[in-house]
Structures are given as structure tokens and as C-alpha cells.
Amino acid sequence: MKKLFIIANWKSNKTESEAKNWLQNFKVQDLGLTNKEIIVCPPFTLFSGFKSSIINLNSSLKLGAQDISPFDEGAYTGEVTGRQIKEFADYVIIGHSERRSHFGETDEIIVKKIEQAVKNNLTPLICISNKEQISIIAKTINILNSQFSTFNFLVAYEPTFAIGSGIADTPQNANDIGLEIKKFLKEAYVLYGGSVTPQNVNSFTNMPLIDGVLVGKVSLNPQEFSAVIANA
Ligand code: PGA
Questions:
Q1: Which one from 37, 96, 98, 105 is the annotated catalytic residue?
Q2: How far from each other are the two terminal CA atoms of the chain, in whole angstroms?
Q3: Can 158 be counted among the known catalytic residues?
């Protein structure tokens, strides 16, 4: 049975009380998770409370950040560093297309963020929305491989038309991109993201080169996210 990563990207959603409510209604213990790693990426304001709840509930949930500073600690107003994230989380999303489109994030910044993640022992989940972005990621990972001992990384294929639209890409297309990614980076775990639902999740996770999904909107509802995990 292959290992699957099911990742919730909450984006800019939920207050502390809403997150507590989500956790109370999310029954991860009942889901039979032998081969599934479940990672929730809430906003930074929820990190501390979320981490305490995970410990109190003795839950196997993992925490991820939605972003990371491209710099070490210092005078960078508003940024959260890899070292600060590592106190709470094990994963970090890097290069989401919403960061490219709303915050002007460039390939150069994304490369620095990947370096910060690896340096701080965080597993990067690098988002790409097309084939052209694969080679720059591969170049960065190969350089880091020569500087750091082996590290895991995930690459999520998220076509922009599918994000939040209710129209997912086809599983075959996602698998074809998975093949391209693994041609350059054979040790990559490849995820699909964009309008994943409880109904369509297994059409993606059944594809041979897809190792999981990145779930936005549907992950905000604990019952629906549980159904995604159960059906994956
Ligand atoms: P969606 O978002 O599931 O709401 O389409 C996915 C993402 O942007 O990670």
C-alpha cells in the first residue's frame, strides 16, 4: 500500500474558536490511517492552540505552515522564519499560485523559501501550476541535495483553473504531470490539488504516480475533510 499525504490548506480562514470547533468534530482516530499522513495548514495565529490540542487529543495530525520567510531571523517586518515555524510544524507550503498572483512571489523568492525550509528541517510542499515550473524546482532541490543530508519533499500540481472553481483537472493529466516531475526528481512525492472532494479524491489517489492531495475549501468542513481521508 503506497503512502498517501492528505493536506488541508485553510488559507485565510478560521478564528481560534472556529478551529477548536473543527477539531472537536474531526474524528481522525476513527479513520484507519495506517498509510495516510494527515497534515493541517492553518494560519499562524492558530499554531500554538492547534499544537496544544493535537497533543491533548493524542492525535496523529501534523501541522504545516502556509508560507515561510525567505530570510533568517532579523528585521523583516511581518515575516515568520523557518526556525519559528519548526517549533510547531513539520511541513510548509511554498509557492502557492495565490502567493504568486496576490503577493508578487517570484521564482527567486520561492527558491529562497525552499532553502529556508530545508535548512530548518521542515518538509517543503512546493506548488507548481504547470510543467514549465518543474525545472527550476528540480535545480533548487538538486543543489540542496548536495548541501544537506537527504530530506523529503513534496511537489503539488495545482492548475490555477482548478483552484476553488469546482472543476478539477483530470486524474490522467495529473498523473502525466506526476511523470514529468518524477523524471526530474525521482524521489519526489507528487500531490494533486484543485477542487478535490470526497467524491473525486480516489480518482486521483488511485493514479500510480499521485501520492496524495492538497485540499482547500473542502478541508474547512471537518466532516467533509474526514470523508476525503476515508475515501482516499
Ligand atoms: P481548493 O484549493 O481545494 O479550494 O480548490 C486547493 C488549494 O488551493 O490548495
A1: 96
A2: 12
A3: yes
What ligand 1 atom has the least distance to the C-alpha of 218? 3
Cα–Cα distance measured from residue 107 to residue 137, given in angstroms and rounded to the nearest whole number:
9
Contact indicator for 210, 171 with CB cutoff of 8 Å: yes
- Give yes or no: 102 in active site: no
Give the C-alpha separation, 83 to 140, whole Å.
Answer: 20
Rounded to the nearest 5 percent, the helix, strand and coil shares of the chain are: 45, 15, 40
- CA geometry: angle 151, 52, 26, nearest 5 deg: 85
Block residue for cell numbers 513539520: 90
Per-residue model confidence as pLDDT tens digits over 47-83? 999 999 988 888 889 999 999 999 999 999 999 999 9
Contact criterion met (CB below 8 Å) for 10 and 222: no
Q: What is the pLDDT of residues 183-198, one digit of tens each?
A: 999 999 999 999 999 9
Q: Which residues line ligand 1 (CB under 6 A)?
A: 9, 158, 163-164, 193-196, 214-218
Give the residue carrying C-alpha cell 489517489: 205
Which string of b and e fits 135-162 if b means at least 16 CB within 10 Å? ebbbebbeebeeeeeebebbbbbbbeeb
Calculated CA dihedral for residues 221, 156, 161, 208, nearest 10 degrees: -100
